[in-house]
Amino acid sequence: MDMLNLAKKIVDNIDKGVKPLIGWEKSDEIVKIGADGTPTKRIDLIAENIASNTIEKHCGAILISEEIGVSVIGHDLEYIIILDPIDGTYNALKDIPIYSTSVAIGRISEELKKKLSNMQKKEIAKFIKNHTINDLEVGVVKNLYTGDLYYAKKGEGAYLLKSGEKEEKRITVSSINNLKDASIGLFVYGLSNNILDFIKDRKVRRIRLFGSIALEMCYVARGALDAFININENTRLCDIAGGYVIVKEAGGEITDKNGKELNLRLDVNERTSLICSNKLIHKKLVGIFGNKWAIKPTKFGIITRRDKERAIKLGIKIVNYLNSKGIKCAVEPHLKRRLTNIDVEEINPKDPKSLSSISHVVSIGGDGTVLRTLKLIDGNEIPLISINMGTVGFLTEFDEKEAFKIIDDVIKGEYEIEKRTRLGGKIKFKNGKELKISGALNEIVLITKNPAKMLHFEVFVNGDFVEDVRADGIIISTPTGSTAYSLSAGGPIIEPLVDGFVIVPICPFKLSSRPIVVNGNSEIRIKLVSPGKPALVVVDGDVEAKIDVGDEIILKKSDSYAYFVKGSNFYNKLKKLYY
């Protein structure tokens, strides 16, 4: 029997066999622990036995299934079969109409058949691990509630045969290219902050949670969903094998959360994260949930502290090291003058295009160098490798002795990205003119231009009046900046990934004027009402503008983020503040 008809036969027999079990109380009993380490319910085991018996009647095969692990069926081995007997077991047991069975099949070559004939079961299991999910040629998923059948054969497209209909329909993924218009399926077991933020920020039109990975992948294949996402590293080979072939044949894109190709070994214990979508929105989803820079860097930008010879020398060593690995570099003019024997490009601080081909930036210095680097990047999505050569270096992630190790990790793609919120907005002058404010990683400060002159502000959050503040100034801090000027002014310490901002009066006149933490999606509006007392708008330590009575500043979360290659634990960094 050919692979496609065999797969259809397996799912049809499972369909007939498990129907009487729906609602039967003993179907829910745990009968053993499966090969993948999870509990096996009676209904799973019965479905798996039906599949094994079906295979035995028609061919010899190596079966990989969540419950049994690896099983050799018959003698003349033709196929490798990946089975998920019941995908959505909980739904099936509770008669929630979203559960399926999934089968994927690959062929064993004639050459390999000869080797297998002399192998023991353990040797066969080890041998099969040399194959990957990309060796599978057929995928079949059946919705056991509706009877709808999804199937695909490599190179021949993907199809849907609806229950009760005689003709199949060719299916393709959607053509949605705007996330705001997209419908997304999520697997949310073990909710992460990333997923919670995604849901809360309403980045897509609608979110659906179904509980059957194979079916959700098929919904993507037919364009009913625009994407299915599981960012946890717990998606199993058996969960996705059938759907993987179908989505690929439907023109979809399937990678891990970092955009890397899925190359799962044919091993029941293999795990991965998963982003499955049409190709138009795939990169955008990788940008939200993963490290889209995990591929080999194309070019490093090197930014060093200009007044510290040690930092400059480390920058030169890093350029030489990257050059020895065939990776290009771009450097600031002061560093280029020191690199006479190496061909490097020059970063022009006045020309943002000079950064356009840079994939990663190395910042060598203290917090000031990090802030200068981010200003140079100017909202471009370029990850920052921050190496401390300053005094405190609270914004830096690595020390000098870790520099080359983290660069090697970045080259290999073995690192994580931490996305930091920035604060942006505009100044609205009383004459009607407006001025955009640069994005701040730490804080935006409104401070008196004249020493010892108290300012008077009106503070609004989301249009609601909060209070009159009479103080030397006022700080609006990001979570990252909560350990900087805000902390010195009496503000709280906030974890960098918390979604919020802090409004902190500087030396307030009233004892009741205390720091306020507001939601990260808030609009903060501050109006200067001190006649004859102008104030300065300072962004991360640099003066941006001067405002006067009647002018107001409107702030909210910036559309662009700062991306840090993750290193030191936040709580370890806090120890720097104790000494």
Automatic annotation (TrEMBL):
One of its GO terms (biological process) is NAD+ metabolic process. The active site is at D367 (proton acceptor). GO terms for molecular function: ATP binding; metal ion binding; NAD+ kinase activity; NADP phosphatase activity. Its cofactor is a divalent metal cation; Mg(2+). NAD(+) binds at D367, G368, R372, N442, E443, K453, R470, D472, T483, A484, Y485, S486, L487, S488. The keyword NAD applies. GO terms for cellular component: cytoplasm. Keywords: ATP-binding, Cytoplasm, Hydrolase, Kinase, Magnesium, Metal-binding, Multifunctional enzyme, NAD, NADP, Nucleotide-binding, Transferase. Mg(2+) binds at E66, D84, I86, D87, D239. The keyword Aminoacyl-tRNA synthetase does not apply. It is found in: Cytoplasm. Coiled coil: none annotated. It catalyses: NADP(+) + H2O = phosphate + NAD(+); NAD(+) + ATP = ADP + NADP(+) + H(+). Its EC number is 2.7.1.23. InterPro entries: ATP-NAD_kinase_N, ATP-NAD_kinase_PpnK-typ_C, Bifunctional_PpnK_predicted, Inositol_monophosphatase-like, NAD/diacylglycerol_kinase_sf, NADK. SUPFAM superfamilies: Carbohydrate phosphatase, NAD kinase/diacylglycerol kinase-like. It comes from the Archaea. In the N-terminal section; belongs to the inositol monophosphatase superfamily. NCBIfam families: PRK14076.1 (NF010678). Involved in the regulation of the intracellular balance of NAD and NADP, and is a key enzyme in the biosynthesis of NADP. Catalyzes specifically the phosphorylation on 2'-hydroxyl of the adenosine moiety of NAD to yield NADP. Homotetramer. This is NAD kinase. It comes from Methanotorris igneus (strain DSM 5666 / JCM 11834 / Kol 5). The gene is nadK.
